Each structure stands twice: as structure tokens, then as C-alpha cells.
Inverse folding.
């Protein structure tokens, strides 16, 4: 039996094997080629497919089967999941016995959850359970969601941002908005176009956003195409300028999620003040985001030691925690 925890994210898919640990961490991209009679052939998935975004010829499409944390096309998601399973379980006899817990945004509708379960079943995962990503991420950070005290976690991904408070097998309050790291990337691309006449693709804008978060120098050099002349162009962009572009989106996310505090019972505040708020997700690495969150919530904020992988790791760990799956999961 192969047991997997799957974080099927908008930007990246991470798969954790209960025995081998992280076995896949690649972009959530599927490359398909059109064939006669309307058939589609999978060319590649993951990092190889992502490198061809915006570079494919006619008849070949690079698709993102997940948007805002949920599948948007069941057929593409099924094809993508099947390709993933072949990557982590290359032998047919291995694929015959796959059990998985798949993370899903807490704001996903029942229909979106059911679509994911059906896509997983068609892809060969006969025993699939969907679990809210905030709960899976909490388990991956070492939090017990069945404990008799309130815990609050914030998950900031590429497509969704969520805050969830839970205690003893039940969700006390949750807020979700379909805004995340992708909107930050889009804002960077628009800013470079409007203020520096520099045209860049999504991959470059994402790289600029990440570099600005990590850069110790006051500026970074960005390469793109001049919007006026269509010629290659280099521009020196201050790191502080990129931070200013991203800040309004961060504040919008936090203001939306802060509404969760109004839904909490007064008794929950003492526990959260003592333990703090656990922060994870790829976009949580944005410079200064934890400080913005702390100011808005009024609680201490702790960034996870494994913010990018804790959802997949927690989902895999839940396969050994049937009580957690019974309380929070849907099969």
C-alpha cells in the first residue's frame, strides 16, 4: 500500500509519502498535445511543463488544472493526477494500491470537494480523502487538532488565503478569500509595465517578487521587453518599490481574514494569546507579512519552519491519525 499526502496547490503540487517523505515538489502545470479525433496526449507535467508556459506552438497547450486552490476542469485534473501517480509510483502493481489524503481550501464548496474526489478516483486513487488545508498544515506543524484548546492557523497560498480556528475535532471559525500570491505576482507585472515600460511574463514577475523578498541589496535588475520599442530591455528596480506594490494586496488579505476574530467565542482568545497564530503557505514568506498579520490580529504570529511543505506532510501524517480524518475529512 502506497500512502500519500497531496497538496494540490494553485502554483505547486507537493506529494509526501508516509515512508519516503517528500517525493515530488513541482509546479502545477500540465502540457498536452492535441491529436486527431480530439484526443489529447500528455507530453509532460510539473517543472518541465512550467518551463514551456508561453512558449508552446499550435496544438500544444500548457494548462494549470488548479485555480484558486480547486480544480476548474475535472478532465484535466484527472489527467494531471494520473500523471503524478505515475511519477511517484512508476510500477503498475504499485498504482493498484494507492491511498491518499488531498488538501483542499476550507472555503471550497461541497461540489468542488466532490469533483476532486471523483477526479482522484478516476486517476486511480481508490481511497481518497479530502482534508481542509489549514487542518493538514496544522498537523504538519505539530499541532493536534483534537486537543482541548483552541488553535488558529493562517494559510497564505498562491490562489487562496485562509484563517481557521479549531478545537477538539471541530472548526470554530474560518474565513477564506481567493486572493493570494498570484495576485501579488500580477501586481508586480502590471507595475513594471505601467511605470517602467517593461513587459515581463508571469514567471519573470514571480521571480522578481521572490528576489525582492530575499534581496539584501537596495535594488534588483529585471530583464524584459520594452513596451514602446519591443526590444530587449534591462531596468533597475528598487526593492522597496516592489514591496510597496505588494503591500496593498497583503493588507487586503489580512483585513478579509481578520473578520474571523468576530466569529470566535470569547473563551478562545486566551488559548490563542498563549499559543500564537501559526502562519504557513508560500505567500507567507512575503517580507513583512507576519508583522502586518500580527498588527491586524493582535496575537503573536509564528511562521512555520516548513511553510511550503507542511500541508502535504500533515496530510500524509493524518493517514496514521484516523480520528483526525473522521473529524475533519471527507471521503
Amino acid at each position: 500500500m502506497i500512502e500519500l499526502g497531496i497538496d494540490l496547490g494553485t502554483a505547486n503540487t507537493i506529494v509526501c509519502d508516509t515512508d519516503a517523505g517528500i517525493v515530488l515538489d513541482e509546479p502545477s502545470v500540465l502540457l498536452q498535445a492535441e491529436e486527431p479525433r480530439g484526443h489529447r496526449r500528455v507530453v509532460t507535467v510539473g517543472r518541465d511543463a512550467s518551463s514551456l508556459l508561453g512558449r508552446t506552438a499550435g496544438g500544444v497547450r500548457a494548462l494549470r488544472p488548479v485555480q484558486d486552490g480547486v480544480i476548474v476542469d475535472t478532465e484535466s485534473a484527472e489527467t494531471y493526477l494520473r500523471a503524478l501517480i505515475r511519477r511517484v509510483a512508476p510500477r503498475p502493481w504499485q498504482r493498484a494500491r494507492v491511498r491518499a489524503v488531498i488538501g483542499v481550501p476550507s472555503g471550497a464548496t461541497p461540489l468542488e470537494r466532490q469533483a476532486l474526489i471523483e477526479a482522484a478516483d478516476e486517476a486511480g486513487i481508490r481511497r481518497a480523502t479530502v482534508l481542509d488545508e489549514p487542518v493538514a498544515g496544522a498537523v504538519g506543524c505539530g499541532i493536534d487538532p483534537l486537543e482541548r484548546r483552541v488553535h488558529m492557523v493562517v494559510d497564505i497560498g498562491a490562489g487562496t488565503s485562509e484563517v481557521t480556528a479549531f478545537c477538539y475535532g471541530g472548526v470554530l471559525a474560518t474565513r477564506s478569500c481567493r486572493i493570494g500570491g498570484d495576485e501579488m505576482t500580477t501586481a508586480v507585472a502590471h507595475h513594471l509595465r505601467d511605470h517602467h515600460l517593461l513587459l515581463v511574463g508571469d514567471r519573470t514577475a514571480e521571480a522578481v517578487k521572490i528576489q525582492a523578498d530575499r534581496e539584501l541589496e537596495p535594488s534588483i535588475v529585471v530583464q524584459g521587453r520594452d513596451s514602446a520599442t519591443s526590444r530587449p530591455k534591462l531596468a533597475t528596480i528598487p526593492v522597496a518599490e516592489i514591496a510597496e506594490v505588494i503591500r496593498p494586496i497583503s493588507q487586503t488579505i489580512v483585513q478579509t481574514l481578520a473578520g474571523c476574530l468576530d466569529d470566535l467565542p470569547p473563551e478562545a482568545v486566551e488559548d490563542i494569546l498563549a499559543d500564537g497564530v501559526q502562519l504557513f503557505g508560500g505567500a507567507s514568506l512575503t517580507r513583512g507579512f507576519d508583522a502586518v498579520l500580527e498588527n491586524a490580529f493582535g496575537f503573536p504570529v509564528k511562521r512555520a519552519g516548513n511553510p511550503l511543505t507542511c500541508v502535504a506532510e500533515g496530510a500524509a501524517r493524518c493517514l496514521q491519525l484516523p480520528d483526525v480524518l473522521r473529524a475533519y475529512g471527507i471521503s
Notes: The first strand starts at residue 2 and ends at 8.
